[in-house]
């Protein structure tokens, strides 16, 4: 009987029921009414069903704000089951069409492919401008570069800060490439007026204060996946941004932490089709941070392109051996140019 009732819930009203609360046998009518009143006060429509072994309550409406664990902590509740994902605005079910993010004229998603390239960290005017010119000539459409750098060690190079952003803007004016750079704290946003796209790094994916603040801005956001984040946690981070009104979000898979020690991280290529299934937001891949080795960038880039990614983010440095940050994973301009030719050729083959 219990299984039959459960089937009623997940098929009734074509999926409108978003959560099921299974009550314990000893649940009193008074306690049930108290719980029901609290849920109805939040605009939730209740659909109770009495089974032979369990009493069930189906919830119809937006249950994304309900705390599943808090409900389960009640002494009359046996378990709580979500029927739909808690992310609503990022969910493809509620937004079937692909979102196309526009970064100062460069489109990402919905069939539009973008390559972001540049140094891990901005170091000198000569370095950033030379790199910008080289990556543009090779086919990059957005210049990436770090001015504020979150580093594992407090003794590592932390970036040039606002001065580094000024150098990126200089390169932007020189080449016409829009720029993307990482912001680490809401207090830094004052320096990002001329930055075309804000990057939220892996370590800040769940910095909810920062997510809310960038959500209030009319500026595209590149949201990197956390080191050990699930797809749902990643999309819920995007939901934080979207809940404040900013829907221009590009997700970036940059490798997750696994048991493997041969590579810096493990690039999750599965994220491409899975995110496209779960969400309407575009997803790009960062093969540089994934393996941490420049020789791995080419095969991972081609695998990501073949897998249907909406773009790539690749580290390029004019002299990787002298880079102040992540030199071992950066490509030289000539290596990058060779790679982009293969990427574009592969896309042409896939299109036909």
Automatic annotation (TrEMBL):
The keyword Transferase applies. Residues 100-342 form the DAHP synthetase I/KDSA domain. Gene3D superfamilies: Aldolase class I, Phospho-2-dehydro-3-deoxyheptonate aldolase, domain 1. Its EC number is 2.5.1.54. Residues 19-85 form the DAHP synthase ferredoxin-like domain. GO terms for molecular function: 3-deoxy-7-phosphoheptulonate synthase activity; aldehyde-lyase activity. One of its GO terms (biological process) is aromatic amino acid family biosynthetic process. Coiled coil: none annotated. It comes from the Bacteria. It holds the Pfam family DAHP_snth_FXD. It is an enzyme of class 2 (transferase). PANTHER family: PHOSPHO-2-DEHYDRO-3-DEOXYHEPTONATE ALDOLASE (PTHR43018:SF2). NCBIfam families: DAHP_synth_Bsub (TIGR01361), PRK08673.1 (NF006421), PRK12595.1 (NF009239). This is Phospho-2-dehydro-3-deoxyheptonate aldolase.
